[in-house]
Amino acid sequence: MWNLPHGPLHADMYAYTMALAHFRKGDHDTPTTYHAFVRKNPFGGSYTLVAGIHDFLRWLRDFRFTDYRTDYLASLKTMKGNRLFDDAFLKMVAETPLSLTIDALPEGELTFPNVPFARVSGPQWQCLIVEATLLNLINAQSLVATEASRCVHAAEGTPVIDGSLRRSMDVGGYASARAAYIGGFSGTSNVAVARALGLPARGTFAHAYVTFHKEEETAFRNYAETMDDVVMLLDTYDTLTAARLATRICKEIGKPLLGVRLDSGDLGWLSLEVRRILDEAGFRDTYVMASNDLNPRTIASLRAQQKAGEAAIDRWMVGTDIGAPHEGGALGGVYKLAEVAGRPVIKVAERGVSAADTKTTIPGPYGVVRMLRDKDGRERIAGDTLLSLDTLGRVTGWGGTDKLTGPDNGRFQLTSDLVSVNLADPERPTKFRTGQLCYVPHRRMMTRGDIVYEMPSLDEIQAFARTGLDRLDPAHRRLDQPHIYVAGLDEGLYEMRRRMIRDIHLSHQ
């Protein structure tokens, strides 16, 4: 796994200063609940694919204030030169066991704006300390997993391989390679991650192998003679000449040419010409791989060319766009307080350019029920509704996340009608009627500091993600102007939020 050796020191400084202020006032152990969620989906898309929660749980296993960690905190000074953290505070954090309870979306599940990918409950000071690592791990991997799923969707069943290590923004490329596999990639060029996670390791050779030799023919011949799997990079000097050379050498030494890779130029036209050369030489089973700054849109464009008979690409290697997705920037997952000692709380932001364009939160601990419907003989997800945990239990017969099992926590039928209000368009609510098929996507991950979730294998997570993505209506998966998937608020939760906003505004006039 990603190595985070410093345990609870992986935190923002404000978490510790707030924890200290709470401790000195004696309310640091107050029970609180936080929600982690995205305000908007990345890449202008309609969904976010969740990844990273398992690494967060593994990090929590090392949530211990060892001597060197508390010694470092003890060494910190205020601007006046005084010790920032006193012995009483350090003794408290060192001797208090972790007691958080966490419900979260399993890796490979889909999330949408305001739908919590994690709900964290426990003592206020501990909820504060875990925020940064939770967001760091899940934001990074969910962003990459989402982009990978878009690449796979654009590739329409042809394999996509991760080649992001050299461009990855995380040290070692662990998060990029792992999340790309969850998103549907078929292998990685990252040898260390392939070993650590049991992923297929994939790679050919680079231009340096050709330029090392005095002539391209010598390079190709040496490689073909020494390797079982012969895959040639063709574009070091002249792509079509190299294609003819590769086929001739493989014929002469009696070895199959497994594949060729194109890394520059007009990939569509070159692939078609290379395919013709391969076929004429009898290498009809040789695959053609494309690389060179690919992303979902370039892959989709090349696939469109292929359907028109203007390209012939069988595989894809995506590097920069997975290591540092430029269109998405960063996933803006946030972590907001929802309840203090049973009292719902809300953050009210300044008004944005529209009624829905604010950072105002949703008060109280809430969950989500995900609706299912049959469309054209296929099961689709048909909208989410956020609702208080009490209401969730009432309308589904749901007994709590710690009672649920199975890939979708089982199916339910609504036991009463449910009205869902879209915050962006509250005047047109959606009514889900009694008997509507649905499920609850959250799982219990940790109970009072003990990890209770049995983490599936990476292959199982990838399969689970594929199933969830297949449930999305194709309109939600469009690369350009996708149809928006709505996560509305149950009318009771909507009214409570509206009243709290109104009361706060009135009290501050």
UniProtKB/TrEMBL annotation:
SUPFAM superfamilies linked: Nicotinate/Quinolinate PRTase C-terminal domain-like (SSF51690), Nicotinate/Quinolinate PRTase N-terminal domain-like (SSF54675)
GO MF term set: glycosyltransferase activity; nicotinate phosphoribosyltransferase activity
Location of the Nicotinate phosphoribosyltransferase C-terminal domain: 442-496
The encoding gene: pncB
Matching NCBIfam families: NAPRTase_put (TIGR01513)
Keyword Transferase on entry: yes
EC numbers: 6.3.4.21
Catalytic activity: 5-phospho-alpha-D-ribose 1-diphosphate + nicotinate + ATP + H2O = nicotinate beta-D-ribonucleotide + ADP + phosphate + diphosphate
Function comment: Catalyzes the first step in the biosynthesis of NAD from nicotinic acid, the ATP-dependent synthesis of beta-nicotinate D-ribonucleotide from nicotinate and 5-phospho-D-ribose 1-phosphate.
Protein name: Nicotinate phosphoribosyltransferase
